[in-house]
Design a protein that fits this description.
With 300 residues, the protein is mainly β. The strands form six sheets. Strands 2, 3, 4, 5 and 6 form a five-stranded antiparallel β-sheet that branches. It is globular.
Length: 300
């Protein structure tokens, strides 16, 4: 059976025809969901209440790609643009920026997420077809960057356990999710190890619930899979969109799983009515909260 056949477990939340929808995040203080269309450089937002989304709004447009966006504690945004991180105030003013990837390096910034202390972590993706030397960086309170990994094939989803003591990262082309000990107070990290290995599918974005289980979106499989902290698969959601990219919990009760998808045509994958849409599914176990970015001075 192909990923687009049979029953699906989601509904369309916002039909915005994203070329590469990614990075959904719940902006609790403003009661809205945010997501990016990476290839088009768009940031979308939609008010969200009672499981129902308002009309989507294209809130930001940038030249080039937009890998991720994080709501900031000052009401603004942190944007992961093609090569740099950019802090914008609530009125859209650029307040600061820091280069992450040198201009001539054939990579771009990809997925990003805030740790429990409000530090932003972001990964990279190769543009030259030679994956294997991509990185995860963490933006520190003094505005500097710490390299957490420098040997990743394609740096993708990032999340933390509810107690903040475990960090999860996805390496898509190695078909795995890594876990490592994490101390949010000090920033210290332990050695990583593979907690999920999926040789049959490509893991992408992920989100953690209050039980410490995590949902992973699978590119090309048209589904999300839920794993317990030991890496055992315990559930599946069928999306009806082969190029399922990421997920996040949203809503006051954090019991709506918001799912992004890609609408661009990719050889070997069927197209569907859900392709490029933002989807949603009601879940029994609420999601763990995700911190906002704590702004720091960016002048690199």
């Amino acid at each position: 059976m192909s990923p687009t056949e049979g029953a699906v477990d989601v509904q369309i939340l916002a039909d915005v025809s994203c070329a590469l929808g990614e990075g959904p995040v719940w902006d609790a203080p403003n009661g809205r969901v945010l997501w990016v269309d990476i290839d088009r450089g768009h940031l979308w937002t939609a008010a969200f209440e009672g499981g129902v989304a308002g009309a989507p709004v294209r809130a930001v447009e940038v030249a080039g790609t937009l890998g991720a966006a994080a709501p900031a504690a000052d009401g603004g945004l942190l944007l992961a643009r093609a090569k740099h991180l950019e802090h914008r105030t609530s009125d859209g003013t650029v307040r600061g920026a820091v280069e992450v990837i040198p201009a001539r390096t054939p990579s771009r910034l990809n997925d990003g997420c805030c740790d429990p202390a409000g530090r932003f972590v972001v990964g990279s993706l190769a543009l030259d077809g030679e994956p294997g030397q991509e990185c995860f960086w963490r933006l520190e309170p003094d505005g500097s960057l710490t390299v957490l990994d420098d040997d990743v094939s394609l740096a993708n989803g990032i999340a933390w356990s509810p107690d903040g003591g475990t960090m999860y990262t996805v390496d898509t082309f190695r078909n795995c999710v890594y876990a490592r000990d994490y101390d949010a107070a000090t920033g210290r990290t332990g050695a990583r190890h593979v907690v999920v290995s999926t040789p049959d599918a490509l893991p992408d974005g992920l989100a953690v619930d209050v039980e410490g289980h995590f949902w992973v979106a699978f590119w090309g499989a048209g589904e999300l899979r839920r794993f317990d902290p030991t890496g055992r698969q315990v559930d599946t959601l069928r999306t009806g969109a082969p190029l399922t990219t990421s997920c996040a919990f949203a809503g006051d009760a954090m019991q709506t799983l918001v799912v992004t998808t890609a609408g661009k045509r990719v050889s070997g994958h069927e197209h569907s009515e859900h392709a490029g849409a933002v989807l949603s599914a009601a879940v029994d176990v609420p999601g763990a909260s995700v911190a906002q970015w704590e702004p720091v001075a960016l002048d690199g």
